[in-house]
Structure formats: structure tokens, C-alpha cells
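re: ur question from earlier - yeah i can do the single chain one, its not a big deal. heres the input i used so u can compare w yours
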Amino acid sequence: MRNIIVILLLLPIMCFNIVAAGLGNHGHKNITITNILNDGYNLTIHCKSKQFDLGTHTLKSQEGYWFLIKPNFSGTSLFFCNVRWPGQSYWFDVYKYGRDKKYGPNYSWTVGSVGTCVDNDSNYCKFWE
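and the output i got, formated as C-alpha cells:
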């Protein structure tokens, strides 16, 4: 009986330590977005989540913007970006926990005139409509 009480007392602590250790793949994610637009256009990006607004940044041709995110423990993390250049404006999800949780910590996005792609194990692309 005493062993059962000890196990019941330790079980919540053990579960918390497993989640806190990052075994749920909640570690930091490195996000890079690079401008590969033709014609040397500058790319204006504005990335945010429900909780954080990373502001607006302008990238010259072949220039990148880097930021770090930490997915939440509830598995609902979503970061999205608006990208603009003369005559065009598009939104895309730069990190979506449900889609990206199984991939590593690095997400290198390229933004071009036909769409955006991420260079990780998914090689996911979104083409502009």
C-alpha cells in the first residue's frame, strides 16, 4: 500500500519533468526568411502570432531575416507572416505546430514570386494564388 501512495505522489512530478524536458518537441525553433524575388525587388515582411508581433522588416534581394520562437505546451503555436513587394501581398504560416512538430529546430524559408518553400525535412511549399 505504501508503494502505491509513493507512486501516486511521484507520478505528476515525473509527467511534468517529461514535458519540461522537451520530449514533446517544444524546444526553440529557428526561423529564417530569405528574399529570392526576381528583378531585385525589396521584400517587406511582417510576422506575428496571437501573442507576439515581430514588427515589419524590409529585406533586400538575397537578404534574410531570422527569429527564434518557442512553441507553447498546449500544441497550438502558430506564427504567420505577410510578405509584400510592388503589386503583391500574401500571407503564409511560417510555423504551425500541427504541421511542423515532427521536424527539427531549423526552418529556412525562401520567398519568391511564385510562392514560398521551407528547407527542412518536409520541403513544404505554398504557391501564391
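Helices lie at 2-20, 97-100. not sure if urs matches, ping me
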